[in-house]
Structure formats: structure tokens, C-alpha cells
Amino acid sequence: MKFFTVAVVLAFVAVAAAQDGGLNLSEEQKQKVHALGAECLKETGASEEAVRAVGKGDYSQVDGNVKCFAKCLQGKLGYFVDGKVNEPAVESSLGKLVGKEKIKAIQEKCNGVKGTDDCDTALLLHKCYATENASILV
């Protein structure tokens, strides 16, 4: 079965969706996202509480580890490669959820954001996508 998730973009979205059942993901998809999220938590030392908070739009607990969690999970999902968005991968998965034209419009607004490093950029991408289409977070 083809795997897709709502992340970015959403590194945090994917974890929140998989753990809280916010989107209609298959059990296989939920398990895969959960496993990838667990790997990234371990690799980055990010707080699970802080990651869940970001998934719900609360950035008050963000630190360098949370930013690197965003980079890690977006990378493992194929959404963030070599410091930039993998547009075809994002269009393929998120386009199925909110429509290809909507995703393309979001990408035009968001994909050029740059942070101080790749971890910061990954979190800024998440914030931009979430701001442009909060329904991705539902």
C-alpha cells in the first residue's frame, strides 16, 4: 500500500495525526509515522511534549532539538532533502488531502523560507504551511 501522510510539513502534523487520530490514515500509515517520529525523537533528543504542542500550533516550547526533529521527520518522509522542500513528494501526499492547486499555492508562499540552518528552515516551513492551511493540522 502506498504510504503518504500529512506531515511537513509537517513533521509535527504527521505525529499528531498518527497519535491522535486526527486524519483518516490507515493503521499501517499511523504505525509508520509513529515509528519514524520515535526514531527522530531519539535521534534529536526533542521533547515529545514539545513536539505534540507544535503539532497543535503551540510554539512556546520550541528549542533546537524540536527544530531538528522537524528536519529529521520531514527528511525521513522525503519532504525535506538537502535543505529544501521536495516539491513533488509534498504535492503527491498533501495534494490528495487538500487539492493539488491549494498545495501549489501554499508552496509558492512557503517553499522559499530560509532559517539560520536546516533545522530552523524545517520548522519555519511547518509554521508557514500550517498558517496557510490550518486544516492540514486537523
From TrEMBL:
Gene3D superfamilies: Pheromone/general odorant binding protein domain. This is General odorant binding protein 56d-like protein. One of its GO terms (cellular component) is extracellular space. Residues 1-18 form the signal peptide. Keywords: Secreted, Signal. It is found in: Secreted. Belongs to the PBP/GOBP family. The lineage of its organism: Eukaryota, Metazoa, Ecdysozoa, Arthropoda, Hexapoda. One of its GO terms (molecular function) is odorant binding. GO terms for biological process: sensory perception of smell. It holds the Pfam family PBP_GOBP.
